[in-house]
């Protein structure tokens, strides 16, 4: 995630928490973790970058000139199509979800 961005945490009707991983949040404090890959940001043979969202039922995004552009597109797609909308399986478990938006204090984020 980019600094000064909010982190969206979605809590579904069963109490399960979904978020796009970000080291500025101590996710282990939320409870038992099950972390899974949502996409693969990889270089192409031509030196560009793509974001393959197949692990969450999404498309291949790109190609992008810079890796950072591919990462931004990946996060934007995940926020719009996976995080808030819920997973691609046909289920009503995410119908009554609460969305908590947290603003991360930039002074507490790690430098990369």
Give the structure's gist in a few sentences:
By secondary structure, the chain is an alpha+beta fold.
Overview of this protein structure:
The chain is an alpha+beta fold and 112 residues long. The chain has one domain. Helices cover 15% and strands 25% of the residues. The chain has 1 helix and 6 strands, in the order βββββαβ. The strands form 2 sheets. A 3-stranded antiparallel sheet has the order 2-1-6, with no helix packed on it. A hairpin with a 7-residue loop joins strand 4 and strand 5.
Number of helices: 1
Number of strands: 6
Shape: elongated
Rounded mean pLDDT score = 77
In total, how many domains does the architecture comprise? 1
What share of residues is helical?
A: 10-25%
Q: Which structural category do the helix and sheet elements fall into?
A: alpha+beta
For the termini, the CA-CA separation is 11 Å
Give the low-pLDDT segments: 89-106
Strand content: 25-35%
Please describe the biggest sheet, giving its number of strands, its sense, and whether it closes into a barrel.
Answer: 3 strands, antiparallel
User: What is the H/E string?
Assistant: EEEEEHE
Backbone CA Rg: 15 Å
Considering the chains and any ligands shown, give keywords for the structure:
3-stranded antiparallel beta sheet, 1 helix, 112 residues, 6 strands, alpha+beta, single chain
């Amino acid at each position: 995630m980019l600094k000064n961005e909010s982190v969206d945490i979605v809590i579904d009707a069963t109490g399960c928490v979904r978020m796009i991983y970000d080291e500025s949040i101590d996710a282990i404090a939320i409870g038992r973790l099950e972390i899974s890959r949502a996409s693969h940001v990889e270089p192409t043979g031509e030196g560009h970058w793509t974001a393959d969202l197949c692990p969450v039922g999404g498309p291949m995004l790109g190609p992008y000139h810079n890796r950072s552009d591919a990462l931004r597109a990946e996060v934007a797609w995940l926020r719009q199509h996976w995080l808030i909308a819920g997973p691609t399986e046909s289920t009503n478990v995410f119908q009554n979800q609460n969305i908590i938006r947290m603003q991360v204090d930039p002074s507490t984020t790690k430098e990369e």
